[in-house]
């Protein structure tokens, strides 16, 4: 058998260092995640702090940032790490993405030197957990109309409002909270021990069950001005953080798709029906060929974006193109692989249905497919169709 990504010898696109990083992350996923993740998913829990410390030891948290204990790795290396983590589980990759590309990146990019020194070294080691509070109960895809407010009270700020579907929130030590002020949207690094801050674990999820997700309530949270992210001005600041995190999803979704396709190939070559392996039927081979093709196309897209990110940076619409295509195709691959496994496809013994369920959330969070279509449409036509 040929592994799906070996058809076009895509491994040759990587440097020796990039392959080494990939192998290290793959080993930690094999050792620390795969033996347990089916149980975590079934129970709806995940050992966030234990995993964060393990990932911190390998330099995976904020690995693409520089200074403050961060590894300063390339965008492609970070993408490969996301791919290997999500091959184990999307929720585990989300832990790393939210920690590094949202919470840490926001402080690293927009915070003061004091804020960076206070939070980033501990977040890089996994001793401190961060979350990113932008999405609200009534304002998901439309953060410009967020209801959370921050008002001046003397030298302090007082925050009131709520955030929903916030990864890592129940375990977080610091929450990057975005709020409307008289001066526009402003970010705050909020210690979660601050009076008036509370985070409730969201239960009964059918997707991303091996991920800690919470609802944040801000009830008169009083902060000094030293909590304000002074370089964050307007809605472009949190949206730039989302662009940073979406890049990891471009790669991560491929990991989930690859794991499903590997599982389907192994199953189809060993399972016999009507006197021959499932893989010996033309319809099965057609499914496998089409899925392998889409997986490789997605990998080439991710690689192009990664190399461009390292060379000159990426524009938001380029990241939107990557997330739109790769998550959409990864979900289609997971669903198709489920059909090859038949009834066994819904069993927790195999990772396929878990990945398919997770990818339903990945399709939605950090910009729905429709939002990314509108981003591309606006770039193509010059017309803003949001809300139209």
TrEMBL record:
The Acyl-CoA dehydrogenase/oxidase N-terminal domain, residue ranges: 15-127
InterPro entries attached to this UniProt entry: Acyl-CoA_Oxase/DH_mid-dom (IPR006091), Acyl-CoA_Oxase/DH_mid-dom_sf (IPR046373), AcylCo_DH-like_C (IPR036250), AcylCo_DH/oxidase_C (IPR009075), AcylCoA_DH/ox_N (IPR013786), AcylCoA_DH/ox_N_sf (IPR037069), AcylCoA_DH/oxidase_NM_dom_sf (IPR009100), Glutaryl-CoA_DH_mitochondrial (IPR052033)
Superkingdom of this protein's organism: Bacteria
Pfam families, alphabetized: Acyl-CoA_dh_1, Acyl-CoA_dh_M, Acyl-CoA_dh_N
Alphabetical UniProt keywords: FAD, Flavoprotein, Oxidoreductase, Transit peptide
Domain Acyl-CoA oxidase/dehydrogenase middle as annotated: residue spans: 131-221
Domain annotation Acyl-CoA dehydrogenase/oxidase C-terminal: ranges: 233-379
Annotated GO biological process: fatty acid beta-oxidation using acyl-CoA dehydrogenase; fatty-acyl-CoA biosynthetic process
GO terms assigned for molecular function: fatty-acyl-CoA binding; flavin adenine dinucleotide binding; glutaryl-CoA dehydrogenase activity
Family label: Belongs to the acyl-CoA dehydrogenase family.
Name of the featured protein: Glutaryl-CoA dehydrogenase
Organism: Mangrovihabitans endophyticus
């Amino acid at each position: 058998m040929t592994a799906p990504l070996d058809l076009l010898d895509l491994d040759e696109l990587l440097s020796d260092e990039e392959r080494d990083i990939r192998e290290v992350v793959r080993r930690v996923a094999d050792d620390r995640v795969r033996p347990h993740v089916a149980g975590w998913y079934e129970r709806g829990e995940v050992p966030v702090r234990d995993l964060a410390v393990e990932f911190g030891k390998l330099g995976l948290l904020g690995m693409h940032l520089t200074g403050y204990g961060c590894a300063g790795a390339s965008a492609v290396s970070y993408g490969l790490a996301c791919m290997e983590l999500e091959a184990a589980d999307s929720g585990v990759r989300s832990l790393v993405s939210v920690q590094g590309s949202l919470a840490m990146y926001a402080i690293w990019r927009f915070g003061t030197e004091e804020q960076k020194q206070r939070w980033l070294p501990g977040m890089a080691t996994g001793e401190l957990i961060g979350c990113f509070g932008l999405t609200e109960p009534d304002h998901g895809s439309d953060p410009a109309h967020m209801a959370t407010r921050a008002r001046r009270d003397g030298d302090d700020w007082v925050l009131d409002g709520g955030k929903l579907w916030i990864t890592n929130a129940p375990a977080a030590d610091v929450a990057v909270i975005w709020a409307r002020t008289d001066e526009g949207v402003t970010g705050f690094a909020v210690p979660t021990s601050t009076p008036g801050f509370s985070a409730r674990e969201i239960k009964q999820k059918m997707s991303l069950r091996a991920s800690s997700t919470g609802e944040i309530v801000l009830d008169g949270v009083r902060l000094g001005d030293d909590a304000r992210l002074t370089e964050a001005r307007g809605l472009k600041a949190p949206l730039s953080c989302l662009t940073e995190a979406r890049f990891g999803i471009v790669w991560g979704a491929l990991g989930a798709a690859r794991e499903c396709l590997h599982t389907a190939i192994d199953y189809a070559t060993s399972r016999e029906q009507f006197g021959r392996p499932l893989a010996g039927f033309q319809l099965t081979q057609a499914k496998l060929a089409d899925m392998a093709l889409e997986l490789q196309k997605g990998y080439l897209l991710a690689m192009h974006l990664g190399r461009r990110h390292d060379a000159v940076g990426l524009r938001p619409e380029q990241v939107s193109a990557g997330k739109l295509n790769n998550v959409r195709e990864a979900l289609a691959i997971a669903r198709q692989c489920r059909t090859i496994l038949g009834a066994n496809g819904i069993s927790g013994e195999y990772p396929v249905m878990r990945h398919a369920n997770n990818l339903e959330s990945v399709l939605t969070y950090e910009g729905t497919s429709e939002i990314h279509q509108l981003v591309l449409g606006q770039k193509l036509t010059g017309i803003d169709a949001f809300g139209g």
